[in-house]
Amino acid sequence: MKVAIVNLGQIVSGDWRKPFAEGDTILVDGETITSVGAASAGTTDAADVVIDADRMTAIPGLIDSHVHITFGDYTPRQRTVGYLESYLHGGTTTAISASEVHVPGRPRDVEGVKALAVAAQRCFADYRPGGMRVIAGSVILEPGLKESDFRELMQKGVKLAKAGFGAVKTAYDYVPLVADAKAAGLITTCHTGGSSIPGSGAITGDHLLKMHPHVSFHINGGPTAMPDADFERVITESTIALQVCTAGNLRTTLLCAKLAEAKGAFERFIIATDTPTGSGIMPLGMLYTIAHLSSLTDIPPERFICAATGSNARIYGLDSGLLAPGKAADIVLIDAPDGGTQKTALAAIKHGDIAAIGTVVTAGVPRFVGRSRNTPATTRKARVALSRVSQDFSAAAH
Q: Is the pLDDT of residue 229 over 90?
């Protein structure tokens, strides 16, 4: 399918160093963006679907790098079906597993944790709930796992390893496990802060610096934050990615963002939700965290949109997160919410309002055009101006 999105008011690129792209048109062919900028009338008329954005703002689909996925579009933690599809209506087009730790009765032996990771990865390899891409399968680090196990998992398609919920005596016991997982090529992540569920323990800055995983999960607290002094240590003494989450401590979220900016480490600052957990299901979690960070710091909103898109994609090695030719066609149109005081999406976010969503495209397919079922209504009205396919692109009513 060829899709053209025209009459855009602004394009946020997803690259925090150059957050805006020039032009008013995005062209898509199949699952890939082919052009960002200007396009001739002949080019857009050749599209199968033309979406008139009515001067809305285009951003890359949000990438939530901390979702507690189990199997299917279901969360046993909150006993809810369809939550991933609901997150898509919050602009999240990719969800990355923070390990399948919430699977009831999850195994803890070496073969069991390997099997769980492989099963999750395979279940979501071709399954897109509501159109969302899910990166699943994160092996939970348990004593007894060896580098050979991690290499086997890599060969089977598992790319993630998680420290923080294993049967270790102290968090320092994760150091060799993380090293072996990294040596095998896995992206390593680590629970950070106080214990979150029975059987887990606190992980502080010193633990992180000894392990040196690729990503510090919910560095702002999941939900309890580590000591304030540890933030500057992790930022200045490591290259660990600094993931802040909605289901965490807002004060330390702001602290981490300001320190990352001041210390020249903003490329490592990424945004996620850490849901579903005891904090619940948060379809608009990414939007809320972007709005909180934008309105309560001096950093502009487009930078935080990039932290929720292109920066996540770079750290996790994804082909999405950027509005640029050759990248995955995951595109969200946002706007100032109807009835608000601001005129544009970015001004509304800076004001502290969450953005309203008018369109979501994933894998080159418009999943809905007109209105998200979860956000406020948009001020402007995106519409399908031309369609040569027999598909209704309107969103379901509440």
A: yes
pTM of the predicted protein model: 0.96
When pLDDT is cut at 50, 70 and 90, the band that residue 392 belongs to is confident
Confidence of residue 396 (pLDDT cuts 50, 70, 90): low
Q: Is the peptide bond before 223 cis (omega within 30 degrees of 0)?
A: yes
Model pLDDT for residues 262-286, shown as the tens digit of each residue: 999 999 999 999 999 989 999 999 9
Q: Which residue has the higher pLDDT, 377 or 45?
A: 377
Domains in the chain: ranges and CATH: 2-60+321-387 (2.30.40.10), 62-283 (3.20.20.140)
